[in-house]
Hints:
Blueprint: H1 4-9, H2 11-20, H3 27-66, H4 70-107, E1 126-131, H5 144-150, E2 154-155, H6 156-163, E3 169-170, H7 172-190, E4 195-197, E5 202-203, H8 205-211, H9 214-220, E6 222-223, E7 230-231, H10 235-241, E8 247-249, E9 255-264, E10 283-293, H11 298-315, E11 320-324, E12 336-344, E13 349-358, H12 362-367, E14 370-372, E15 378-380, E16 382-389, H13 393-401, E17 409-410, E18 424-425
Parallel strand pairs: 4-9, 8-14
Antiparallel strand pairs: 1-11, 2-3, 5-7, 6-7, 9-10, 10-16, 11-12, 12-13, 13-16, 14-15, 17-18
Amino acid sequence: xxxxxxxxxxxxxxxxxxxxxxxxxxxxxxxxxxxxxxxxxxxxxxxxxxxxxxxxxxxxxxxxxxxxxxxxxxxxxxxxxxxxxxxxxxxxxxxxxxxxxxxxxxxxxxxxxxxxxxxxxxxxxxxxxxxxxxxxxxxxxxxxxxxxxxxxxxxxxxxxxxxxxxxxxxxxxxxxxxxxxxxxxxxxxxxxxxxxxxxxxxxxxxxxxxxxxxxxxxxxxxxxxxxxxxxxxxxxxxxxxxxxxxxxxxxxxxxxxxxxxxxxxxxxxxxxxxxxxxxxxxxxxxxxxxxxxxxxxxxxxxxxxxxxxxxxxxxxxxxxxxxxxxxxxxxxxxxxxxxxxxxxxxxxxxxxxxxxxxxxxxxxxxxxxxxxxxxxxxxxxxxxxxxxxxxxxxxxxxxxxxxxxxxxxxxxxxxxxxxxxxxxxxxxx
Length: 429
């Protein structure tokens, strides 16, 4: 959410930003919210004037009564009653105007960074750099669920009977590999200086609206029936929500945290062959990282954060590339975002395994996360988030890139301590 004062003073800039995001249907909201904000401020000013006059008149009534001027005092009392009635009207109107302004401001997209490429959707995202040499072996790479089945590592049929499509049972060495990747990612980030956290897996609605756009909320979040609680789609939601309403001393910054959680997502819409299996599912687990920092440091942290994901994947012998998200592919709160994509030898192309985002002060403004400087000045924090690793999607890349012709899967050296020292997973008969 952008600053209403900035919008008021720079309506053309906000409208141009909306056009860059190809959301022309929102252009009218700028003029609409300016008019509502004007009414709100006029309403507030009139109410403040009446309150100030009330104090003045109260003293005047006392003076008149002391002088025995009862008739004049009664006339002033009548004015007080009239003012009280008007004040009640103004006070009743104020929350309604506040809510209307806030609801519109929540739907107006954040101002994107000037470096963001302009494009309508993810088809116009821009490749930044490749890391590692993508290899296509001289034997056929099976679909990822076939690899897992040969390792006796997955049961999709039972999961469908128990929970429906979009769920799975991971079994044996594949389940162990899943947990090993998460444990390795946890320690990898701790070694980068991040503090490990396990957050709540449910959050209240005021946190949901603080951390994401309405469109994201509708397409992602599961609501708990009869409760003001939602299952998290990523631990970023509850991790950022932790600082809701907080005043953080500048000396404590940056806050660098890495978190584990299960994630729950609706994943609306039909998906093609490559998104079956365990690629796009309703429940998965993830290691995340977030940073809360000073505004002038957020772009530096943005570059550090995605580079950590690249580094982690390269230690697992998985080639990756970074892809700059264009304006039309950015969620409304994001200032800048980059996807990390892993190489798929089977598809002979890259696919998304993580995303790093700088949200500027948008989440901090919604959640009132403020910083107190050494000079006593107070300002909004900047927040960032990034996927460290999200199996089982990451397992697809891992299995394909470490598969041998005989169906066995190599375990990179860094992962062996988490796999009981084994160097290879063998197919089961």
